Amino acid sequence: MTTRKAQSAMEYLMTYGWAILIIAVVLGALFSLGVFNGNSILGTSCVAATGYLCQSPLYSHTTGFISVTLGQTTGTSWASTNIMFVPSGQAVSGGLPVTLTSAAFTAGLGNVMTSGLSSGQSVALLIPDNIIALPTVGTPATGTLWVQYVQSSCAACTFQYAQIATLNVKAT
User: Fold this and answer.
1) Domain with 130 in it: what CATH number?
2) pTM
3) Fewer Cβ neighbours under 10 Å: the N or C end of the chain?
């Protein structure tokens, strides 16, 4: 009598064990294909930090540039403004991405605005993506937009940095 109970229990475990194994293999295959990747679901977005504006992001597959409208309402005007796209996963040192240096901006890795940016002003910019020169259609670019600036009211001040927005765009 006990052998029949054990046989029934083993058949039950084997039947459901195979079903669970098949489900695990299918989920593993879907995960490796990127079906559960958040970037494929999210689409295009530009989430601005408090005091900043970020609208209409586009990522061109023909130029490799990110087109976006940016602005600031921090209450201070900036005399010299450099804006840079920092891809996700970049190394950080002292709370800033290591790619944020004056040399990076002067080497053309950012959008340099010599005219500055007044509080309440917004501008349309072309920012180079320095990771993928010419992406294919559908290639995602995720990261943050940073600004390097000097306040207009302070001639002897050094560069200051601020994270403007978080960006997620696909090449079109």
Assistant:
1) 2.60.40
2) 0.68
3) N
